[in-house]
Every structure is written in C-alpha cells, then in structure tokens.
Amino acid sequence: MREPVAIVFEDEHLLVVDKPAGLVVHPGAGVATDTLVQLLADKIAGGPEPDRPGVVHRLDRDTSGLMLLARSEPVHTALQEQIRRRDVEREYLALVAGTFDTQTGTIEAPLGRDRVNRTVMSTRTDKPRDATTHFEVLETLAGRSLLRVKLETGRTHQIRAHMLAIRHPVCGDPAYGGRGAGKDLGLTRQFLHSARVAFRHPVTGEQVACESKPPADLCRALDVARRDAVPGGPDRS
Fold first, then answer.
1. Judging by DSSP bridges, how do beta strands 132-140 and 104-108 pair with one another?
2. Residue 206's domain is classified under what CATH number?
3. In the annotation, is 114 catalytic?
4. pLDDT of amino acid 1
5. Does any domain span residue 232?
6. Domain span at residue 42?
7. Exactly one of 18, 60, 173, 217 is catalytic; which is it?
C-alpha cells in the first residue's frame, strides 16, 4: 500500500485531501487495489456507488491536488447539491501549449465520449453535455502559457478536452495532444494541478477554502519553461 494521503482539512463531516499524481481515485478500469478510497476507507462514506464512497468530485489519475470527500450520506448529498448548483469553487493550474491574445477567456463547448476514440472526451460526440471552463493567463512563456482554470461544470476530462478543442493542449498530456509540448520539460504526465477548493460547509455554514502548491515535478517543469523563455538562456538555441 502507498503512504498515507495528505489531509488538508478534516472534521467529523468531511475532508479535503491533496491527491498525488499517479493515484487512482476508486477501483475500475483494471485498477482494483491501492486506490484513494481504499486508503481512506475508514474516513469516508456516502453516495450511490459503493466502490467510490464519499467521492464528491474526482481527479484523473495523473492530475494532482485537492479533492473534497464526504464522511456521511447527508453530507455527501449536500456537497453534491453544491456542485450541481455550481457553488463549489474549483481552481486548477495548467501549463498549456501556445500563447494567447487575451488574458482571460471562457470555453463553452459540450463534451461527451468521442465518436471514434471512446477512451477520450471531445466536442465530436453523439451525447453532448454542457461544459463551461474559464481561464486566466498567469504567465506567458516561450510557446507556452501558465493558466489559472476555473470549472463551472465538472465533466470527465473537461479541462484537458477543452484545452485541446481550442488548440492549446495541456503540456505533457498524452491523451489530449500535449505529449510533445511536455517532452522537453521533462514531464511524464499532464501539467494539471487542483490548486484551490472553496465551499460552504454543509453542517456549520462556514466558508472553507483550501489551497495546494504544485508538486515538485510540475515546479521543475515550470522552471525549465521559464528558463527557455529568457532570451539567450541556457535552454534556448
């Protein structure tokens, strides 16, 4: 089994954890053991699916950062309702290929299973579901941009699919066109990190906000990208 998952916030009703990249959230798709919900089995509960107790929203295996989990059925229901009403703030850091002409933008493009490649989500789908992603450019680098991304909806692979749809794939993302943009940065996974989660506590009514800094592998990749952006720097030809 893995080392314990870092817990950022915890009380008798819910917890916020900082999930490392490489850790699958719940069993499925050929993964039966050593998942997040199994590591936290004595702490989480609630929800209609027994193989994913307490999971309010999920992260992809190779996406790191903050996740919100419930410890009871009523709390899970209340948090899911907040997600449905779009009252839970979820912010990500993403390094993407290319640069932008504007500092902010919104992507409104329905997503669903791709018609040809059923393992990915895309706008080319027979069963579209509304999806909205907001982004802000934090830093412009050499052929790349560091973004703050806010989810309004929470579709599977939403950020990754939306960024590919506007031709700015997430660096290092092999499934959504970003492998090449991450290779020379030393990335072995997508540069996507759940950096902030904020919500109203369903029991106490207090506002809870948690933040997480990017892990070491993403910091190293960003350092390389920044060096590459310096004219005459060591990574420029």
1. antiparallel
2. 3.30.2350.10
3. no
4. 47
5. no
6. 6-227
7. 60
Dump pLDDT digits (tens) for 24-36: 998 876 766 789 9
**pLDDT score at 181:** 94
Q: How much is the mean pLDDT over the chain?
A: 93
Inside any domain, residue 173: yes
- As a three-state string, the secondary structure of 175-237 is CCCCHHHHHCCCCCCCCEEEEEEEEECCCCCCEEEEECCCCHHHHHHHHHHHHHCCCCCCCCC
Contact yes or no for 200/82 (Cβ under 8 A):
yes
Work out the average pLDDT over 191-199: 98
B/e letters for 16-28, b = 16+ CB within 10 Å, e = fewer, are bbbbbbebbbbee
Residue 46 within a domain: yes
Residue in the structure block whose two tokens are 């997600």: 83
Q: Residue range 181-187: average pLDDT?
A: 95
Q: How many structural domains is the chain composed of? A: 1
pLDDT at 3: 61
